[in-house]
Structures are given as C-alpha cells and as structure tokens.
Design goal:
Chain lengths: 350, 350, 350, 350
C-alpha cells in the first residue's frame, strides 16, 4: 500500500484496533462462506440481524451494517443534518479531529460546532447556550448533536448526563447521535442495558462499534426513530459502502452480539485497562489524566519514562489532542502478562 | 438489515458476487489474524502489497486497497476529474447505471458524458467526436475517460481497442481509467499480461477487482502514473474507506495474486461461462445476445423457458439494461454439474 | 477582468444579452436608490413583488429574485432533486451544455439524464420511456424534469406539449421545472397567459427570465407549489445569491412586469426575429434550420456568406451545439435598420 | 419576495448596506447602458478593470468582479482550500457566522477552524499554535487563513499585525485571504496604500468590497498571486456568478475606484462613525465596547435607552454575536444631521 503518513507506529496498547478478530467472529465468517448467497445485504444473515438487534435494544430498530466506523458516523449524521446544518460536538470528538472531515463530506458541507465540555464530555448547559440562529437565513442551522460513548478521554457518559443532553437537543428540535465506537466498553462500565444507554436516554441514532472489540471490520448504524432513516440506503450505495458480499459483515455482527461475546470481550478489556491504570498510578511521577472508566488509560509520563518505554520497544508518543497525556488502550485480547510486562518495564526505568 | 430494494433475488448464475471466498483467501485472513498489527494500512502485509503488485504489473505502481469496487471506481475518478469535469463512459457502464451516482458524489458533481458505443464497448472515434468545449467557461470540462474490462455486455476490449481509446484520451489531455471489476476474467480471456492490458496500452489508473473472483471484500486502486495519486489518501479517509484493520483487506489481495490463484479462478469461471454459452446456443429459441468472451453469458430466452427455469428455483429476470437479454454469470466456484443441471432443466422445458 | 475564454466575440444579433436595459428598468433603479432601505429582500419593493407576480400568474406564487439565470435554474432544481437524483432534460438544454455543471453543483451531484428529443424539444413519449429504476438502491433516482421555453433551437413548446410532458412527470411523481430565460418571448409567441403556459399546464417551478429582455441582471424563481420551496432561502444565502441590496434586483423586476413593458419588449424582439428570418429565407443558399417561433433565428449559411459578414464586422461563428446552424438573436432594442443592414450586407455577398 | 426571516428590521445606522448607490456609480451604470456590448465580462469596461486595479495596487493583479460579497469570499477561499482543508478564522468572522456556510459549500466541505482572538482580531500566536496535523491522513489539512478588514468588532488590523499573521500562514505553507467588505474604510483609517495593506503585508487574495461603500452590488476578487487563480472562472460560472451583463458590475467598480470616489465615501463614513462614537461616549451609562476605528460603532446601552430609541423609530436590537453591544454603522450617505438626531434623541431619554 502507498505510504500514508499516520500518527504513530506502535503495537501493544497503541489502540484496540491493533488486535485481530476474536475466534467466535472468525468462525462466523468461515461458516457464512459455505454456499452462495444473495448479495447487497439481502441474504438471510443480514436480514435476520434486524431482529437480533431489535431484541438486544428491546425495540424495533432499523440496522445498516457497514465496514467502517467513520462511514457509520458520517452516514448517520447525514440523515439528520442538511448541507447548511450545524452538528454540535466536543472539540476533541473523533468526528471533529480524526475523520478527515467525513461528516462535512457526507452532509455536503455541514458545520461542526465544537464545544469545550468538561474534560472529554460535553454538558447540557454549554450545548443549550450554543444553539442559536434558528430560522435566520444568514446562519448555518442547528440540526444535530453527537456524543461519543466511551468519549475521547476514556470517560463514560452517565445515563443522566446523556438524558440531559438529549433533552436539550430535543427541546431545540435537534436529533442526537451517539458515536459508539466503544459502545460495549461503555455498556459494561455502566452495568446497564443497551436500551437504557440509548433510546431510553433519548438517543436517536447510534453508530454501534464492533471492530475494536473483536471484529475484523464491522459496525452498524442503528436507528431508533424510523423517520430518520431517510435516504440512507441510497447514500450508502452512493458512497460505496453497500458491499456486495455484505453477508460477511453481517456474520461478524451476528457472532459478536450472540452469546454475550461482545460483553465478555469488553469486560475483559476494561479489566485490563483498570489493572494498567492502577499499576501506573502507583508511580508518583505518573499522573492519570482522566478517570479510567473503560479500556482506555490516559496518563502523563515524565519524559524519561516515555523514552525508556520506547527504548524497550513500546511505541508511544505524546498525544497531541490530549495535551501531554499518553493514551494506552487495552483490547479484548490483552493479557494479564502484557500489563505486567509494561509495568515491570516501567519499574526498571529511573 | 433494513429492507433495501434490490433488483432481483436469485442465486446460481445470478452474479459472481453470490459466491463466497476461495480457500486460499480465507486461509490468509486466518493467518493475518495472528497477533497485533499496525492499523490503517501501515502493517507489513499492506506495505508489502505495493511490491507484489509492482512485480505483477512490471512497473512501480502505487496501490490503495479498498473493500468496495464502487469506492475504488469513484475514488480513482475523483483524482482525475474536477467538480466541473466530464467523465466519458459507455451509457451502460457500471459507473453510470449501477453505482447510484458515486462518481458524481466523489468528484463533487462531475458529469458522466455517455457514449452509445458498439454493443458494450465505446469506440475511439465516438470518443474523439464527443470531446469538446475545452477551456470555454460555459461548458463542463473534458477530464477523464473510463472503460470497463470485462465490459457490461460480457465482451472483452482487445489490446488495440484499449490503445486507440487511450490515444484519443491522451491526445485531448484526458486521463483514462479502467474499471476492472472482472480484470482477471478479461486477462485470461485475452491471454495477455497485466502490463499489456493496462499501462502498456495507455491505462493510467485501474480499479483492480478481486471480490467477484474469490475474495470476501477486496479491491485495489492501482496508479500507473504517480502524479495522479493526488490527495487520494485524504479522500479515502474522508469517505470512511481507510479501514483500521486494513491488513485483512490486504491479506485477501496478497493471497489472491499469489500462486496464480486469481488466474486459476478466472480461467475456471470463463470455462464454465463458455460451457454454459455453448449449451444454450444449441437451443434454437435461445439467442446469445453478445459474444461470450469471459464468464458472463447474455442470452435472450423465450418467455416460457424463463418461466420454467424460475419454477425450478432459478431466479432470473429479464435484464433492464440489456434489453431483453438475461445475464448468467459463472463464478470461480461454479461446478460443471451446476451448468449441466441448468442445461438439463432447460431440456425439460417446452 | 481576467481573461475568461468565451465562445465568441460579436455584437449585433450575437445574443439578446448584448443589449442593455430598457428605459423603464433603468428609471426604476434610479427611483429605488432614493433613501435607505432594509437589506436582504425585506424592503417594500421586494415584498410587494410577491403580490405582483401572484396577480400576473393568477395564483398565489412564491417568488425569489436573483441576479443570475444559471443560479435561478440550479437553485430551482436543487429543491426538487436529491444528490442522487436524475434530472431529465434535452441534450441541448442550457442546463446541460451552458452552465458549467451548475445543476450538479447545487444538487450536490445530481445526474442530468439527457433526451434526444425532436429538434429542440423533448417529447412526452421519450421521457416516459427514460424514467426507470425507482426505488432500486443501485440506480440514481428519477426526481425532476426540466424544459426550456423558448427552447434551445428557438422553437416554442405548445401548451398541449407542455401538458403532456408534465403529465408524464407527475405520473412518475417527478416535479417539473421550466427554464424561462426567454419566457416573455415564448408567451407572446403563443399569445397565451402566464398561468396557461405554466401551472395550468402542469409546471411546478419556473425560472422567470428578465435579463435578456430588458433588465440589467434580474431573474426570478417562481414556485407554483409551496411545498417545493423547501430550504431555498438557506441555499440562496449559502451560494451568495441573497444580495444585500436586493431592492435593486426587485426594482428591475417590478418595472419589467408593470405596464406591459416585458410583453412589449418581447413582441418587438420576436417581430425583428421574424423579419430577419423572412429576409434570410429569400436566399436560396441559406437554410432556416429550425422554425423561427420567437426572437432566435437558426440558419445554415454557406461559408462565403459567413466570411463576408465577418469581414463586414459581424462576429458570427458556426454554432457547435446546433451543428452547422448559426444563431442570430433579436433583442428588445433591435431596430428595423439593424435587420435591414444585415440583409443588405448579405445581398452584397456572392 | 418570499418571507425570509432576517435578524432585524431597522434603517438608519442599521448597517451600511441600507444605503443606496452614490451618484458617480449610478451615472456609470447609465453610461454603460449605451449601446450593445460583449457579455460575460469580455466587454471593454470589464477588461480595462484589470489594468485599473493593477495601478491601484501597484502590481499586476487578476480581478474577478462579482455581485455578492459572500460569493467573493467563498470563491476566493475555494481556490486555496481543498474539500478536506482547514480555513483558520476568527470565531466571529462573517464567513463563520453570517454566510450560512458558503465557504463550506464552495470548498465542498472545508472546515472553518475558529480562533478566539483578542477582541475582534486573530493573533499570529494563536494562529501558529492552532495549525497542526499536516500530512496526517486522519486530520483535515491546514490550508488557508482568512482575516476581515475592517474586522467584525469595527477594529482595524494594523499593518504589522497583518504582516505577522501572514508570516505565520506562509511559514506553514498556507495562503491568506482578506475579507475586505469594508476595505476602503480600513484603508483610510490606516492612512496607507492598497498595496501596503495587502500584498506588501503578505495577503494573497482579497475580497474587495464596494457594495457597502457606494455601489449597488459590486465586489471584486483580487489575486495577488497568479498561481492561486486556479479554476475560479469555471467555479464562478458553475455557481451562477458569471453574470451575462457583467459590464454593469464592472462599471460600478470602475466608477468607484476612479477619482477617489471610494476613498471620499469611506472617509466620510468613518468621520460620521467617529462623531457618533464621540457623542455616545459622553453618556456615562453608554459604554463603547470596541475602539471605533472605522465606520462601525459598538456600544453597550442601558435597556431604557434602547427602548427609548426604538420607541422613536430606531430599530436596534442587542447584538447576539457581540454580547450585549449594539452595532451602529455610518455609511457614505450618513449626514451630520442624522448623527445629531440620534444623539438628540438619546439626550431626551432618561
């Protein structure tokens, strides 16, 4: 592949997307490969997914599988935001900083209005104050809100926080989207139900992430309001995101949400994150930057420790977006020994 | 998945995208899953792909793997076509009729100028006559040409035809793209080399298809001219087509182009196509609509025969785009018995 | 101004846009300049325009003045056509050939599906046959129809022709737009009412042209169906077409449609066109290419006559779009003597 | 005209766009109307404009007249900003808050990265710190900078401030645009030359405003770097901003920049602004919010004074964008008596 400049090259704890797929997901792909099947999502696995997700969310939902989280976010937002619309989001949000302008591309030029928030979360109050200009032809128009769960600092929105933000959005007739790239990690962190964390708290559309937590390339756009689906089927096709052999994306999702695979994976990743966070916090010169509430740990290291870790093969840079905090991410396949090894390496640093 | 209306539901011979992946490709995915790896195409498999494709094409090429053929086409065209640019193509071309306007979306509003061609192919002469208005501010500007190989009628462009069309394109300072969704099928049909069928015949950018011929979801945009690469890396990311676990797309391509897997698969599919075509042509009331030059057979059936086939479980409709001709497609996994069975079923029709 | 390449440089009869504004329109601008006024179309002249146009069209219409015909067309079409939509139009239509892709820009990538028509007009039959693929996710979606009145060959659609085309459009749930750049010329040619030539014949949205027939820069988008207005106010502003001192555009339109100015101007231009056409048709070696039904004359000249005219200062090229026919256009300010002079010049050619 | 909701309806001092055109400009329009002329900016007035602006700016510049300031800004920015590009600007800038997303529309989805600035101006330091992520595929790419002169708080950038900001822009290989909607007002305020305030201070492209200071509808995009012109001619046409009777826009600009009309108008407007500001500042309970450096006065009034003014026919609201400050704008046609009257009215308030 052509050399695309990316932010860094490091493996263990670099991100949860360095991990491969879990065995259950791989098995599902192999099984789906048996025999011919109708293309473009009209196969039995894909159509059945509709029901399975509806069960999980305790509501009839409408599901569109995709292979890409960025596409899921941007497509979801494009059904809720006209070309002259405002999307309110945290200034550090993935849609604002890490998708190379995908929401702007898919909405035909929408504007991301960024909020400062408190740490990684936006607040209902700041959102409320930011929304204005409705109906005035000179101004881009308030259209939608997007929050990230787990958010970009590793914190998890509490149910009442989501509810308050949704209430403000709906008060202004905006729709609200949740970027759930780490949906399962947030869910098990809050020990709540998918329904409670989404539509029961006011969420209208969800990007349901699965790639980071055990799939190869599988996400789902989930609509809790049918009227928001709009023309997304055409927009997906038009963007090249309606894969012909869609059954293989659907098969991943099917295996992922069956038999608690997703919850088990997420619980494990969170546990490893916690273990890592606890270990780091024992060092006086390492400061945990944000509460470790899921599988991501943000910590400020002294320069010598970073250099030592890098000299030992870890590839960690200081994060631009989070000031001086380094991000370490545990995945579904992180082992106790992996955490121990990193902590041991740190001990030998001085 | 939500109900997306699609053209038809039928399995055997419906298309080559109803087939799953071949064993070599599946094995590669399993193997790639072993251990963590750098995301976004900076893993060893993805970077090595650059060299492997360069070998195959006997030239240093620049390769961008994608999971979607529509995306490959539209992204490729977007590097060669400004928002006010003309893309010259056959009126039946996939980019014009079957991608829901993806080239228009990715170019920001480019215009597909359609040519009538002779059967499924455009001609150098018609292209030459159609190009005009260059530099005149009132007119959309001639920018690029796209041909499909194997083309939409199952015919294969001969090398001298490609060369003549490329010459016209280059004479007018346009770049030329090949939609190679069935690249391997054309290649083995012509019994030529990848280099001969592309850059040696003037092609500037290729959408290299692999999904239909044995992969799950893997295509590649291949640039023969470095200066055309432009900003495609940003555009891919922006469109949600830079998958985080890109290694799994690359692994499919790697296996596909190794050990002649792709050529073997294509030869078999073409052979099955030929067998089917020969069998059909023995019926006086069935008319082969276009020469069967690869793995696609277009034939006009009497209505009673179609009804009989459908009653026996085949799901075939009359094709809109090709007048009254039904399209039957053989795939890498079509068996001799599959062809025999269809032909036998026909014999019992009257 | 920077050198923009344009098609030709010639003055008399080159186009009706080489003429300036008529006295009534200029007076209205001077009068509107007296005193301060509310900007952005909220001045009394602009708001009153709504009523004046409603009277003229015998129906409550919604009017958006603009300074540009291309903008009027593209904005009108953008309210009726999604980014993945088809606009059906004549292959020679101004929106397809002379607006540098404005409809594609404003719709976010819509597709102009071109019809061959008979001479310069599309037919209801060809339109009906061309519309297809509705609801199928692979295909761009039938959305709107646009006809030009006076059309690009100088012919005028008859009322029953408009009605038949509108009926087909509505049968397929498409909306229909009329590009009325020479609306007045068509109107007086048909000797009918504005209502009959538009909404009573099924037209949904009109680009009402005034610039060519006596204004400086003034057009109007006129909606006959309120529900089609959509977000056009935001789109206009967003495109920079909501002028701050809009009153001066509105003042032109006000004067233009008052006291039969527009009808008088158009009748005169048509009369001069007829006189020119009649004069030309007396030459055996000049062939009138299309019926002269308004103020445009299309004629095939022998090369020596063109050269003679050019040597005498006329600047006329062979028209690309109309094969070998030269277009000569009479305007509101064309004098009998202008026509006589051209005809005399021709007589002296051999 | 259809009811477009706008922010407020008030006349005197509401904005400088409530004024009509000055006599010299009107005369020029009348004069330009005499005789036929080549359309689309190929008339003598338009072509000569190129030289006249080059003289004024002491450099060969490339000029594109437009009828709209929003279009001038967005078109200018679109030549310097790809669809995935960042435009750095003040959070209160007109392009960010008052053009309904025009820059996003014309760039195909660019991102406005907003700076807090100090009062109404951005600073070189904040700009420098904000630029990042260059070459990293996940991030939108730093592309251009835009400053407004006179800025949105009525302050004027000093030459050294412009120079420092330009230096930062160029250090990062960004191009820099000046929104000069009130260019003349800034120029006479600084008592400098057009060259000094633009390219000699590093500006690459200018939106030269004329509408607010004595024209009907006339602005100009002025390129100081030829290589930035790019495809703007096509983009203008495509957006419907290449008017057919362009000579009338050019004639306005011609008269405006001839015989010091523009400077005289601006000096007068600034003088009236100063007089108003001085008068207001004599009230203890009125606070001038920003230094009055050109023709705009921002002042915080006690509620009872606003109510009194409104009861006397002034239509002033508290400005959203500037907190609690009311904006009062003097124009080229503001009379001493207008200022006296407002101040007298205030005296009678208590």
């Amino acid at each position: 592949m052509a050399k695309i400049k990316i932010k860094r090259e490091r493996i263990k704890f670099a991100s949860d997307n360095v991990a491969g797929a879990c065995p259950e997901v791989l098995d599902a792909i192999l099984k789906a490969n048996d025999g011919d099947s109708t293309p473009y999502g009209n196969d039995p696995i894909s159509t059945e997914l509709q029901n399975k997700f509806s069960e999980i969310f305790e509501k009839e939902v409408i599901v569109f599988p995709t292979a890409s989280g960025t596409a899921a976010n941007a497509l979801a937002l494009s059904t809720m935001t006209p070309s002259y619309g405002n999307i309110y989001c945290h200034k550090m949000s993935h849609i604002n900083t890490d998708e190379c302008g995908a929401p702007e591309f898919y909405t035909g030029g929408g504007k991301l209005v960024t909020l400062n928030g408190i740490m990684g979360k936006i607040t209902a109050e700041e959102l409320d104050e930011s929304i204005g200009g409705k109906g005035i032809v000179h101004h881009t128009q308030p259209s939608s809100v997007s929050i990230t769960q787990v958010c970009e600092t590793g914190e998890v929105y509490q149910l009442d926080e989501i509810k308050k933000i949704s209430d403000v959005a709906h008060k202004h007739n905006l729709n609200i989207h949740m970027d759930g790239a780490r949906f399962a990690n947030a869910l098990v962190s809050l020990d709540t139900t998918p329904a409670e964390m989404t539509w029961k708290s006011g969420i209208d559309v969800l990007s349901f992430g699965a790639t980071k937590n055990g799939c190869l390339a599988a996400e789902a756009i989930i609509f809790f309001k049918k009227e928001l689906v709009g023309d997304i089927a055409f927009l997906m096709k038009r963007a090249g995101h309606l894969l012909s052999k869609m059954r293989f994306v659907s098969a991943q999702l099917d295996a992922y949400i069956s038999n608690d695979v997703w919850l088990r994976n997420a619980k494990h990743a969170n546990k490893m994150g916690k273990k890592l966070s606890d270990g780091l916090s024992k060092h006086n010169d390492i400061k945990i930057a944000y509460p470790t509430e899921a599988n991501e740990v943000f910590a400020k290291f002294p320069r010598n420790k970073i250099e030592h870790l890098n000299s030992e093969g870890y590839k960690m840079n200081e994060e631009e977006l989070n000031g001086k905090a380094v991000r370490l991410v545990a995945a579904w396949n992180t082992k106790d020994g992996d955490v121990d090894q990193l902590l041991d390496t740190l001990k030998n640093s001085n």
